[in-house]
Amino acid sequence: MSKSKIPQVLTIAGSDSGGGAGIQADLKTFQERDVFGMSVITAITAQNTTGVQGVHPVPIEMVKQQWASVLSDFDVAAIKTGMLVNGEYMKAVAEVYKEVASIPLVIDPVMIAKGGHPLMEKSAVSVMREILAPLAMVITPNIPEAEALADMSILSKEDMVKAAERLQETGCRNIVIKGGHAVDASHADDLLMLENGEQIWLRSERIDTKETHGTGCTFAACIAAELGKGHSVEESVRTAKKFIQAAIRSHLGIGHGHGPTNHWAYRKEHE
């Protein structure tokens, strides 16, 4: 029997019991983008829209075992990483990924949850910068994450460019610095710095809402899904930008804190 032509995409991240971020958001996004989703769970969180109440890391050996199970049976077309707990988990992921380095890797360098709870130990930032991030085809930091990775303050679009250049100097190839945390009250400008140095600015209207739980996970997962289907980095990022804008714009009104986005909004808009 011939192998399936359905793109198969893997997410390596933490579980969000509230369903709006992490593994749950990634798998919802994969389904909406017509790819088959698989998962390696790095941590179990007790989490809802108001915050993170607890984090229980999955033992590293079990993380490796999950990954080995997936790679031994599925034709993985792209990989996305999210919450990786600490530097030891990042090193483990980097070690395994080097064996399948031809598969496009998208890294969402998850550091802080929407409610302010830290999701990455400070000591892990250097591991992300020096060991894991250079392996990625695309890395998608928001402004606070880009500031940590580039070790500089970002107060302007010029600073965003400088930070992206610094990240490329450390080995990162294609960088999307998301402008949602910027000072512009009316627009969110994302910078896509391609590996050839080309700068592409993606502008969208800023949506006045607190229903943004899981936006970073969803955005990166959509990029991975599109790369898994064979699209270019630029095409994948542009699609992800439209997807997440629709998800934020058509929020669900769920929970009492930073509510989740609407993963089916983009599809509904295009039916």
From TrEMBL:
It is an enzyme of class 2 (transferase). CDD domains: HMPP_kinase. It comes from the Bacteria. One of its GO terms (cellular component) is cytosol. GO terms for molecular function: ATP binding; hydroxymethylpyrimidine kinase activity; phosphomethylpyrimidine kinase activity. PANTHER family: HYDROXYMETHYLPYRIMIDINE_PHOSPHOMETHYLPYRIMIDINE KINASE THI20-RELATED (PTHR20858:SF17), PHOSPHOMETHYLPYRIMIDINE KINASE (PTHR20858). This is Hydroxymethylpyrimidine/phosphomethylpyrimidine kinase. It comes from Alkalibacterium thalassium. The lineage of its organism: Bacteria, Bacillati, Bacillota, Bacilli, Lactobacillales.
